[in-house]
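Revision sheet: structure tokens.
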Amino acid sequence: MQEDKILVLDFGSQYTQLIARRVRENSVYSEIFPFNVSLQKIRDFNPKGIILSGGPSSVYDKGAPISDMKIFELGIPILGICYGMQLMAHLLGGNVAKAVKREYGRAELIIDDDSDLFKGIPPHPPLSKGGSRGGELRTTVWMSHGDRIEKSPEGFSPVAHTENSPIAAIADKKRNFYALQFHPEVVHTEKGREIIKNFVFDICRCKPTWTMKSFIETAKKEIREKVGNQRVVCGISGGVDSSVTAVLVHEAIGDKLTCIFVDNGVLRQDEAKKVENMLKKSFHMKIKCVDASERFLRKLKGVTDPERKRKIIGNEFIRVFEEEAMKIKNVGFLAQGTLYPDVIESISFKGPSATIKSHHNVGGLLKKMKLKLVEPLRELFKDEVRVLGHELGMPDEIINRHPFPGPGLAIRCISDITKQRLDILRKADVIVLEEIKKAELYGKIWQAFAVLLPVKSVGVMGDERTYENVIAIRAVTSVDGMTADWAQIPYDVLGKMSNRIINEVKGVNRVVYDISSKPPSTIEWE
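Predicted:
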């Protein structure tokens, strides 16, 4: 295990995962535990510091999440964020009350006292010519709270305030306890990364020892020890997670790994060929490609509900995968590209958020085939998986690929799924991606794709009235997919997409652009 670690206790904030990611950006390992984890588990984890996340509750709510008071007796630094600050104040004898005015969004933080937490934040306005500060230390932060601190606990001093929060940050330098009313982990907090970095290095005294090279060596060793002489099967989708999982496992055990690619009929254009060529030619891996497209489409016929689509595709994938895997002798393990956010969602307190939609997985295989899991990426976030892929020598085309949902085009073909409608969607999707790449925007966008809507519109083509399909273009910018803004693609690029789709894709006479953000919308339409 890593020598220096930071533990994040989750109180239900939608931003909890971001806290751990911000810590890891500094090459220091961080994990998220639910708020009510036992004190013994915390001791076993042996963190150099603890961060208490935000959350939607008030400390006075019935059933409000409260951690073990004894964490404050561990003798290590603790940082409370938002609800974490209010909880810290409440448990240690301060006074928390409803804010006179709730505070959501950007606010100007005025720093009143020197603190290691705010080291490196420049004066604002800039230093005057005479060398004096020329003004207070100010920075933009992101607030999201309905309660506020009225009185700091004994031993704490207020160190910053905003217009609506007289106590926006507190510090007990003697015990190394700190708390912030705002969220330093979100990009909207101007110096948030620096604040977390200061906590990790200057206050917790961590060393930056967690690197991807060290992770690879440890992971390969663990895979070899776990698998022994048995064989491993891995379901390949063409996405980043499954591809990186396969390459890492293959580096560890070589030909004892067999990859199975199932064409479910709702993949992007030429997906199967691309995946097979990449794994066979570049990495010399064993791969079995199964065309089960007709089988899947029969099951999906007439199905319009997105959750039913997901379940049908997931269940049928298990059946097809099982049939192929059973043909391989001495299989004892299933390699799966489970990521850390998936692990967190299964153990967290009401989140990082409630399940919005079911995930496509192959859990049913474990019981039927008596397989054990190999999940080498279960400690990693998506951006870390991409770094790992680079370290393993994988091509940029795979590593930097936009996320693609497990149910594929089934949830981008809104309402009824037919081969004809899927073909229209595939052709439109290719054009969207081609034009984004031509404009050199692909790497700046988190995800871009076409959606086939379940409506038709009147148009005029060649002096004739038409009544054809509508394509929606969806493109978003994001850091991790948890929140997203619609991408402000130049009008001329959107114009080229629209012109090409209407002219080249038979059956489409109208193109629209989706300008909604997440939240309140999700990235996918279904």
